[in-house]
Amino acid sequence: MHEHVTHPVPAEWAANAKIDADAYALKYRASVDDPDSFWLGEAQRIDWMRAPTKIKDTCFDTDNFRIKWFEDGTLNLAANCLDRHLATRGDDVAILWEPDHPDTPNRQLTYRELHEATCRFANLLKDKGVKRGDRVTIYLPMVPEAAVAMLACARIGAVHSIVFAGFSPDALAQRITDCESTIVLTSDEGLRGGKKVPLKANVDAACAKAKVDTVIMLRHTGADVPFVEGRDVDWAEAVAGMSAHCEPEEMNAEDPLFILYTSGSTGKPKGVLHTTGGYAVWASMTHEYTFDYRPGQIYWCAADIGWVTGHSYVVYGPLMNGATTLMFEGVPNYPDFSRFWQVVDKYEVEQFYAAPTALRALMREGDEWVKKTSRKSLKVLGSVGEPINPEAWDWYYDVVGDKRCPIVDTWWQTETGGHMITPLPGAHALKPGSASFPMFGVQPAVVDPADGHVLEGATEGALVILDSWPGQMRTVYGDHDRFIQTYFSQYPGKYFTGDGCRRDEDGYYWITGRIDDVINVSGHRMGTAEVESALVDHDAVAEAAVVGMPHDVKGQGIYAYVTTMEGVENTEELRKELIQWVRKEIGPIATPDVVQFAPGLPKTRSGKIMRRILRKIAENDTGNLGDTSTLADPSVVDDLLANSPHAK
Ligand code: 6R9
């Protein structure tokens, strides 16, 4: 039903947008027909220290594999976010900071102030021995200093690795160790929805497991926290003694900019590595076109800097484009369900960008929370992180946007650096739930999941990308083979996204969700293998299998099947303990929604767990379990069915 609704481009959008339908068609053709000329043109948005003459040198074939963009160009990304704006908009606000509680004073930093803070902090990093190429772990809440820390790394050529400040000490230690970083930036505590998060204590616990020489700690809530002499540094005190002058390091376009860990279908999280030049062009270009961004507009991306969306669309994209970017410390439902829309009104936000899970949670609370605010400043609404269901899309469009604001449903990944498939507000008629059309330079294709042949026309299958784009990740940190293996071996010569997708008769793309063992909980990626490994770390657990289950608010929830050790009693108490255990091992976002005790898991005779069956039971779609005759012991399925929470 919903799929037949199409919202045409409003006339004033078509007339005034940076990119209208014709411009999109022309630019898209140019971007795939002659990428070198197209990207040479787009590269002009960057202040290069040495302009690139080699534009694109890429090949996805494994025997000749390479991804290089703008390879002889040099630049500094912090200078592109800061220095270049000083003459023209030094006194414009770069970062608007809205605290967790509306009564706490807010903050704002002009481009000049942000430049100064970045230079001072960059000098502090150097003073602590950080050099070009060194990895710096950032474990900070949503405060302006987080952006300062990122920019300071970029300024001196250090590689930042941000770890979401909701992750556990173990998860933090694992990421510190993997990228061999010896310095961690944190704060005493974080604050979200009135609740304190013990960040410094988590860092202290992580330091017991990882080799860390220096911890620079920002005093944020003012909590009394232990201070380790010789290792810990007080941020404000140390920075006060630093010079406000720091020359930006001249970086090659292909020098690393950051590492960001993300979950895959197997093993431990991967350190996705992005480089400087291509990422800069990609983040800047997509931010400008997708949001139809013009300097002077107040722009708000509600994502945390711990996710890639925070990297590209809270910090780098907007700052390169001279935007006023709003950074929000809090959550959508605190102090009440009006919070987002009150912040929109307070600052007259024009572009608002959030995840469907937040929208679904707010939608449940009724329209009054929205309607009592004005929201007349809004021009574009964005969605990111997971498929947006048509009900949530309609609510966003009708209630939040008062039917005035186009919705850009942006499909992309940590690996892609920025938007890959999205409608542009002045170019594309909108279909609720469809990510619509490819960004310039992006060549999506749908392949048959079984044999990898490219499917034409209206069809459904696995989503691949045929050629490189500038914002593409370059490697998995420390494991290039894993990079090739994960993304380029399934369908040789093509980048495999891990997502399923449908293309309709009008050429619109509809992302249907992950087709690998990754689940998407509230827009956060989680490898089922990670949750399983946390569970089997518990003494009582012999074996675990984790799958996604449909969840009204989170999109997907976590459903864990657990086989306990011989002699362990499967009590309600143990069930609760296991839930808390995973929460502690990985972090609150990994909290299982269901733990079902299972005396046995459905395995083939070769010992492979048949997840298809576990998924069906979790989805309560048990009428069609498929062929179970190949199972080593088909009777385990009866037990699983009888003891599923759906059966009760
Ligand atoms: C940016 C980000 C990537 C995975 C991706 C897909 C899902 C993201 C989506 C979407 C449907 C959208 N995803 N945006 N699915 N429509 N607009 O979220 O990166 O955390 O790496 O997650 O999220 O499944 O493969 P990341």
Automatic annotation (TrEMBL):
GO MF annotation list: acetate-CoA ligase activity; AMP binding; ATP binding; metal ion binding
EC number: 6.2.1.1
Chain ranges of the Acetyl-coenzyme A synthetase N-terminal domain: 27-81
Modified-residue entries (N6-acetyllysine), positions: K608
Residues that, per the record, bind CoA: R192, G193, G194, K195, T309, N333, S522, R583
Keyword ATP-binding attached: yes
Residue intervals of the AMP-dependent synthetase/ligase domain: 83-465
One GO biological process term: acetyl-CoA biosynthetic process from acetate
Catalysed transformations (reactions): acetate + ATP + CoA = acetyl-CoA + AMP + diphosphate
Record: residues binding ATP: G385, E386, P387, D409, T410, W411, W412, Q413, T414, D499, R514, R525
Function: Catalyzes the conversion of acetate into acetyl-CoA (AcCoA), an essential intermediate at the junction of anabolic and catabolic pathways. AcsA undergoes a two-step reaction. In the first half reaction, AcsA combines acetate with ATP to form acetyl-adenylate (AcAMP) intermediate. In the second half reaction, it can then transfer the acetyl group from AcAMP to the sulfhydryl group of CoA, forming the product AcCoA.
The protein's name: Acetyl-coenzyme A synthetase
Organism of derivation: Alteraurantiacibacter aquimixticola
Gene: acs
